[in-house]
Amino acid sequence: MWEAQININEVCEIRAKTTVYLGVGAIKKISDICAALKAKGISKVIVITGKSSYVKSGAWDYTLKAFEENNIEHVLYTEITPNPTVDQVDTATKMALEFGAQAVIAIGGGSPIDAAKSVAILMEYKDKTARELYEYKFTPDKAVPIVAVNLTHGTGTEVDRFAVVSIPEKEYKPAIAYDCIYPLYSIDDPALMTSLPAEQTVYVSVDALNHVIEAATTKVATPYSILLAQETVRLVAKYLPVAINNPNDLTARYYLLYASLIAGIAFDNGMLHYTHALEHPLSAVKPELAHGLGLALLVPAVVKQIYPASAKVLADILSPIVGGLTGSPDEGDKAFNGLRDWLSSLGIKPGLKNIGFSESDVEKLTELSFNTPSLGMLLGLAPVEANRESVRAIYLNSL
Description:
Elements: E1 12-15, E2 19-22, H1 30-39, E3 44-49, H2 53-56, H3 59-69, E4 73-77, H4 86-99, E5 103-108, H5 110-122, H6 130-134, E6 146-150, E7 162-164, E8 175-177, E9 185-188, H7 198-215, H8 223-245, H9 250-270, H10 274-285, H11 291-317, H12 332-345, H13 362-371, H14 375-379, H15 388-398
C-alpha cells in the first residue's frame, strides 16, 4: 500500500481551521509556534495538562526550551483528570487570570485539550463560570489563542471545535462546539505516544473509530465525512494490532494518529449521534470509566439499531473489520456480532455489566442521555428516530 512510501520523519502541515504539524519530530515545531505567539505580542501563557504524561512523553522538555528561547513566561496547571470537571476548569482559569496569561497551551490527550479550550473561553468571559458555559447559560464567540500538543491518537480535539467537561453533582457530561475554540496550532508527533499502555492505545483508537461510524451515518453526513470514515477504519484495522504488539512502531503510531486526526475532521463536519450521546452518561456516572471503553461497549448495539437506515454506508466503511456485509438492511445482527468479535480480539470484553452497570441503571442512563445539555441535539441527528424506547434498547443490548 502507498503508506510505505510516506516518510514519517518529514513533518508536514495539514491545514484545516487549525494548522497541524504531523510527523515524527513535530514537537520541535513548538519553538516556531512560540515565536509566532511572541510576534502576536503574547509573552505569558498558561499550560494545561495532567499529572505526569507531559513529562513522561518528552513533550515538556521541548516546550520549556521553546519558552526560554522566546522569553515566554508560563504558569503550569497539572490537575486535569480523565473526564475533567468544571471545577478544574474554573481553578485553572483563576490561575491564568491572576498570572496575566494571554494564551493557553494544552499538553495531553482529550481531557487536557478540552479543559484548555474551556479555559480559553473563560479567560475572555471573566464574569462567567465553567458551569454556566456547559449549561449553555451564554454563547461565546471569542477565546484566547489555543495551542494543542496532542499525546493520544483518539479524540481529534486538536483539530476540531468541540470540548467536553463534566458537571459532577448533576452527573452531566455535556459537549460544546464553538468556532472560537479551534486551536491555532496543534502538534501531532507519534514519537510522543510510544509510552501509551496497550489498553489505552486500544481505547483511544476505538474512540476515533466511533467518531467516523457516527459521522458517516448522521442526518447531516456528507460524501466528505463518509470518505474520511472509510480511510479511518482501514487505517485503524491495519495499524492498531501492530501498535499493540510493538508500542514503539512509529509507522503504526503515525497512521493511528493520522486516522484520529481525520476522524476529528469527519465529525467536525458530519457530527455525532447515538454512541457518544449514550456514552457520556456512562462516564459521567462513573468518571473512572475510559471514554473509549464505554464507546466500545455500546457501538455494536448502536450499529444494530441504525443498520436498516444506513446499511450501504456501514457495510462499506466497516468492511476492514467486519467481513461479508453486503449492505442489505437485514444484516444488523451480523454487524453487531462482527463488531463484538473484532473488539474482543483487541481484548475488550463485551457487556456493560462487566464495568458495573445493570438493568436497574438503564432508566437513569436513558434520562441522562436526554436531559444532559447538548446530548439531545446529538440524538436528534441519528439516522433512525432517537426516543426513550430506542435508547433503552441500545443500553439493554449492551449489557
